[in-house]
Amino acid sequence: MTPVTPRYAHGALRPDLARIASWIEPGSRVLDLGCGDGALLAHLRDHRQVKGAGVELDDTCVIACVRRGVEVIQQNLEDGLALFDDKQFDTVVLSQTLQSMHRTEHILREMARVARHGVVSFPNFGYWPHGWSILRGRMPVTGQMPYQWYNTPNIHLCTLRDFEQLADDVNVNILERATFNEGKEVRLFPSWRSTLAVYRFASP
């Protein structure tokens, strides 16, 4: 089971989630996959009048969503998104979950099916200290990927360029990208210097 990543830091929405929220049109329909404690959906509801729903498997997170008044469906994302119709949503979000999916290509295709736009974030395996760790004969352990090789939920790690190639393969058009390191946005050499990448794409 993937540990819960707090979506609020010191009472504020995490910087990557704040960027995602800024990409969401007011009054639109949003599906948040692996929605955690529902903080993003609650923020979008309260500040952008979004009609949102979440999908989450973890019992504790589902209870947190309910307490926030967030609509949530308890389901394993590996089972797909068959519950949802084509283009039922304006935007679908998959935040820091892509790397733990077994069927990575499938979930991207399903996101493109159920919404006009998608947002994906994931740890950047191209971050330069990761390469240094491997040269020393050890798997990387960092703040964005704090697990040992034997207990990590991350099974499909990738770089920025890897994801961009996958997006091209599944025929989605990348519209925007933001990269972060310790909550601060990275604009110079993001492929090497960022620990987290966030992409917004348009469905075919």
From TrEMBL:
It comes from the Bacteria. Gene3D superfamilies: Vaccinia Virus protein VP39. CDD domains: AdoMet_MTases. InterPro entries: Methionine_synth_MetW, SAM-dependent_MTases_sf. Coiled coil: none annotated. It holds the Pfam family MetW. This is Methionine biosynthesis protein MetW. It comes from Achromobacter arsenitoxydans SY8.
